[in-house]
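dude i think i finally got it to work??
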Amino acid sequence: MADLPLGTAARRRRGGRLALGLAGTLAAALAVGAVLAVPLAFPAAAPAVATVTPVAAPAVAACAGPFLAIGSTDSTQLAAVGAAQTASVGAPGITAADLAAGTGVTGAGAAASFTAPAASGAATSPLLGAAQSQAITTAEARGFTAAACTAPTAEAWLVGGSNDIGETSILRLSNPGGTPASVDLQIWGEQGAVTATGAIGILVNPHAQTVVPLAGIAPGVIAPVIHLLASGGTVAATVQQSYIAGIAPAGADLFSASVAPVTHVVVPGVVFTTMKAVAANSASDEVTASADVLRVFAPGAGTTSIQIGIRGESGQKWATATQVTIAQGIVQDVPLTGMPDGTYDITVDSGAPITVAARTLAIGKTATDFAWWPAAEPLGAGAAVAVAPGPGASLHLVNPTDSAITVSLTASGAAAAARQVAAHSGVALPVVGAGYTLAGAAGLLASVSFAGDGALAGYGVAPAAGAAPAVTVYTR
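look at this
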């Protein structure tokens, strides 16, 4: 090998060192890149979990208020007639307040709302029962009305009323809460679904009442059923109905919601006081305001078969069940005839979800009255039953289960008393004072009735609000 010039060898050594240096740098970079390309594993931190039990809310009930009479010269004006009597029972510390009257309503009377405060640290809302009653004796209306004051809700089914000749029905929407409610109404009648003008977006202001004459949104509908949906706030809904036969007042009533459509329905404690007189008063087999009826409605299309059972309050059957095929989406009034006077529980079983209410008449010596009886839901363990003043007031307890139920009843200022209700039977108890609080009532159905000469009214007892379920909260 020939000797190279010193400069050339030096350059080669420097080039070799440079190449080795670049190779080393590249290798180091690749090594670092490989390290960075490997995912870094950190132990997963489990989220903190907390179970929160909502604080019980106060119980609230809103009433319909005094009877409203239509103005003699202006049918859009309504005047409060007198004042309704109220009663409340339940937890300590119940307070009452008046709701502002609706637009177009005059008069001094106001609808009441009741509030029972929740106990500190309680998991369930307090028991609260409230009710109102009023005897109406005017030239345009006469009858005895009574209704439960109900908890506001976002949905309700109202079964009853009429806009036939001589009949007036007014929907009364009470908002005892602090936020406005917007109410939409779906209405069906004997001809099917009703295109109801003005039934969407009805405003009910906080601590106020809005009244909606049904003749204005469903004129001429003889057998209405109303499905109510509220948003923004909640409302308590009641329908006022009155009837004039020719020129003579022939009854008045207030009724609250029935049950949402289900396949098994019970109407407890339906009172028939003058069955023979009602039958004789009906001019024909046509169902009119002068007949005792069961109003039935099954949403949807097609047909469904229903079975109607009528049982005396003490448990004996009046007759075998009646099978009827009805058209869905159309409201029908099924005549109730032939029973002896008394108190009955009416059951309806259907192939499709259905909602119902019964109407009965009382023909007295000098006056005629009628009442709507809504279907009822089973009670929880505790309940409060308020009974406003009225003739022949009774509390009806019905046991639809297969086992006897022993319930404890406590009247205001009295010791608790136990009463057993046999399976598939019922009892009627005279009312003491403003009503009762019940314990051990789970599974029972309850209603209140009033009956006198030419006076009739009644209402169902709604189950108390249960405890709000616990909520699991995950935090990071």
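The chain has three helices and 35 strands.
im so relieved honestly
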